Amino acid sequence: MAGSFYKGCFLSMFDYKTKTFIVTKNKRVGVLYRLIQLSIIGYIIGWVFLSEKGYQETDEAIQSSIITKLKGVSMTNTTESGVLVWGPEDYVIPPQGEAVLFVVTNFLETPNQKLGHCAEVRRQNTGSFRIMSGRCLGKDENSTGTCEVYGWCPIERKSEPQGPLLSNAENFTIYIKNFIHFPKFTFSKSNVFETTDNSYLRKCRFEEGLHPYCPIFRLGDITRLAGYNFQDMATFGGSIGIMIEWYCDLDKGNSNCHPQYRFTRMDVSITKQTIAEGFNFRHTRYFKNAAGESYRSLFKVYGIRFNIMVHGKAGKFSIIPTIVNVASGMTLIGGGALFCDMVLLYLMKKGDSYRERKFQRFKMKKSEDNGVEDRKGATEHDNLTS
Amino acid sequence: MAGSFYKGCFLSMFDYKTKTFIVTKNKRVGVLYRLIQLSIIGYIIGWVFLSEKGYQETDEAIQSSIITKLKGVSMTNTTESGVLVWGPEDYVIPPQGEAVLFVVTNFLETPNQKLGHCAEVRRQNTGSFRIMSGRCLGKDENSTGTCEVYGWCPIERKSEPQGPLLSNAENFTIYIKNFIHFPKFTFSKSNVFETTDNSYLRKCRFEEGLHPYCPIFRLGDITRLAGYNFQDMATFGGSIGIMIEWYCDLDKGNSNCHPQYRFTRMDVSITKQTIAEGFNFRHTRYFKNAAGESYRSLFKVYGIRFNIMVHGKAGKFSIIPTIVNVASGMTLIGGGALFCDMVLLYLMKKGDSYRERKFQRFKMKKSEDNGVEDRKGATEHDNLTS
Amino acid sequence: MAGSFYKGCFLSMFDYKTKTFIVTKNKRVGVLYRLIQLSIIGYIIGWVFLSEKGYQETDEAIQSSIITKLKGVSMTNTTESGVLVWGPEDYVIPPQGEAVLFVVTNFLETPNQKLGHCAEVRRQNTGSFRIMSGRCLGKDENSTGTCEVYGWCPIERKSEPQGPLLSNAENFTIYIKNFIHFPKFTFSKSNVFETTDNSYLRKCRFEEGLHPYCPIFRLGDITRLAGYNFQDMATFGGSIGIMIEWYCDLDKGNSNCHPQYRFTRMDVSITKQTIAEGFNFRHTRYFKNAAGESYRSLFKVYGIRFNIMVHGKAGKFSIIPTIVNVASGMTLIGGGALFCDMVLLYLMKKGDSYRERKFQRFKMKKSEDNGVEDRKGATEHDNLTS
Fold this sequence. Notes:
- Three copies of one chain form a homotrimer.
- By secondary structure, chain A is α+β, with helices and mostly antiparallel strands.
- Chain A is built from nine helices and 18 strands.
- Chain A has helices at residues 2-12, 27-51, 88-91, 200-203, 219-225, 230-236, 319-347, 351-358, 375-385; strands spanning 16-19, 21-24, 56-59, 63-71, 74-78, 82-86, 92-93, 100-121, 131-136, 146-153, 173-182, 187-190, 216-218, 238-249, 259-265, 280-288, 294-317, 359-362.
- In chain A, strands 3, 7, 8, 9, 10, 14, 15, 16 and 17 form a nine-stranded mixed β-sheet that branches. In chain A, strands 4, 11, 12 and 13 form a four-stranded antiparallel β-sheet that branches. In chain A, strands 5-6 form a two-stranded antiparallel sheet.
- In chain A, strand 7 and strand 8 form a beta hairpin.
- The first copy, chain A, is elongated, with a radius of gyration of 39 Å.
- In chain A, 35% of the residues are buried.
- Residues 124-128, 271-275 and 364-386 of chain A have low confidence and may be disordered.
- At the A-B interface, strand 2, helix 2, strand 8, strand 10 and strand 14 of A face strand 1, strand 2, strand 4, strand 6 and helix 3 of B.
- Chains A, B, C: One of its GO terms (molecular function) is purinergic nucleotide receptor activity.
């Protein structure tokens, strides 16, 4: 007996339960419901799947390695420094080809500085670069007079730069080698155009439209694409961001994954206040004379700082986001049905009769003789209680 | 005939099908269901939407550019080096103002090193910095004796630093310029406070609470906010992480997007073992004497390494995450109904009669005379088979 | 009257509405439905939850700080430079221990360069490093003859490197200190193995399998693990990426969060074209003679550039992704029922009678006497209209 009970339970597991519906020939609600269905399906296919690629798993944690190399040579002739020839070993700081690099376009050398006492005209509101020795020609320390300082003398000449000294820096070229890796898809690529023509990489120059995949950039082109004039920037210095963007749809094949280059100036504030503009820093070269005494050359260098940033996103078909998006779309269609029900129940004139049919009243009977509810009886109960 | 058939099919497309429900006046289950509904709606509105901002699309792939500039000057007086004046061009390594920078707070100079043979007391377990010339005063190479080495002589003095030599490094200031960009929203901003008062940026100092958006930081303040004493750190060196956090709710307007600064010490292991503490490295200055022979100054510099890291997340209303979250909430409410059904079916005393009503039995008839199932007949069939 | 109406409305809020189902004893559809249910549940538990950890919130915005320190010493003897002893202060560029560092393995010194005129054999297609003075021995400027140039003389000797000069660079060791932070979970960790045995960190060497958490790496091991021979790479230089990967399941406890190291060569293009291979750059040391004239040593250094990249993802249980994934699973099961309905309606022989039962026709009555629809009457209407 117990065996047949469990057998019955087991068999009833394979009974198929399905929801019941009532069909109403109300054209207006029917059309409304189909419209809602269509717009949801359109939204899912058009926006989620085609435009936003909701069926793809994405990887934004791009790993990237940058190597840069500059070419070009310039000659300067100044009173302090005499004739100088500048190669990449001099004008690229640091010289080892990193992703953040500074190209000297203008400089002010203060040669043969020695430690000692010298006079300095005091400026207000600036961090003095000397140690005060205490003797001032002005009335008190807060006045704007001349003070004797202990430090590296002679002190740096105060001068506003008059145009860049490395005037042909505009024609220097920068070769950017970028290697990227998307760890989630174990996909790697380089921005160096793969070509059988070996001389292409020696001769090509990046040009939007014409040579979008050539990794060699003329400095003047970079500032122009960022919207600024090179000679203007070169005088006081500045900062340029080079964004390399890798948006790769790996479903379309790996050869369609190409970098895009964008150039932005980074030291100009939005309201164009000049306080943040310009870029310079000081560095030194130390020497010793025959007597073992130290002296140095102080270089205040102005120039353009290039900051190469890599950003990317790779997408590839994956079952999980597809299911999540399809499932939420299906639920939305259910929500559309809910909305149509509301219209039918509350806005249509005959909503009440519809409501009675949709929501059948159910009341537990006093005595459960056979456990089977008689449908006609239920309707009668409803009549009695309503 | 066929035409009217397809016309019928087409018209029936606009029939509106809706699920049927039975209504039971069981207060306990009714209240339970409303409670579940309310808590799910509360969770969706309160947690998913208000707290976690589930209606927003987010961009965590922040692009960032950092420029740093230090100010301050210090004077040291040691036996080896004599009097030295340290400006930013000397104590900032590298000098070009990067996001990772090292500020010298202590140093040990070994001047006038020349290549040659000199004696070195051998230490165990350390990578020797010399080439062994083979002649040792101890018994064998593994003993702890004095060996003759070939290298830069005189060798560096072994000494534990006694307090920082650049004692006022605490008062140096660092000006951090950070430019960020959220590519998904094409939103850019700088941490430099936009003000009409130009002198503000010359005079202000970062202070939590008082001046949270001033981008100029006193080094002593930075170590204090990281929880360490500057003079302690300055002696042996250390590493400080400066996190700039940009959490931007772009729905609230762009001017509400402000950076937050956090400071952490990075060279202290969690269990405070001293092996990982301190930070120093060696660098050299090379000279040549009149005879063309090379000699050098070896600097072992201790100091604080600042590592400026930028982290950010921007959020903006987007339809897709909103829909995904609303849809999963709606499904949850459906799950709540499922749970109430279980309670009604299995826990309530009158579950059986309820079950019969909810799940109507259906059995295919032997002969389908008119394709319409008589509802009363179905109940009779059920009675016969049960 | 109105009071009792609102009271009725309020009470009916706690009526419990539940969907009605019809049960069909069709074994085939029943089994099909259970199979679909089982496979969806299996997919959700097995793939979404166990394999992809869909119940976890993840943080991929890892913050990381790197400090590196090299050890080892090498001696070289060349015609130009004589005997030289190389310590980390010389062969690591930059010396301050950053995440991107260059280790010199080979070099070509051009000592005692002075500014002046010298002869240069012209090469085609290369950016000349000199300023032409205009006097060429060839017929015209485009010929491949010898020209007089103004620049740093003597010019660098043209020579292909014959094996690395710092031949034991293979045995140098690099100590990598990596500190990471997951901001979403405020979780921090260091890759330095926490041990009570202080001498472990002085003696250990990284070995896959044996010592996977020792942070000290032999350079020769790194190139070997990247799949290349050190001596080959050292001659012309190259670029190695060291990926530190932190995949942390924070539900399993913080002590289970360990870094994994991966090594890749980065300067070899996929099609093995040699144009992108090798890595070298030039740097200089400037000197002044007793007369104050500048001269310099030009170093062309070949070597290996290590680029330490940190990538990571931490996961921790969170209610939102759990709910999104469960909800989409539940909707999927609903979709399975839809599919079974289709089978029952369109593929089974008796689909029509099933359809009539599932979708009951409903038509508004002409007169609504009591607002209650008689079920039997509805069936009669159906009979009349069909």
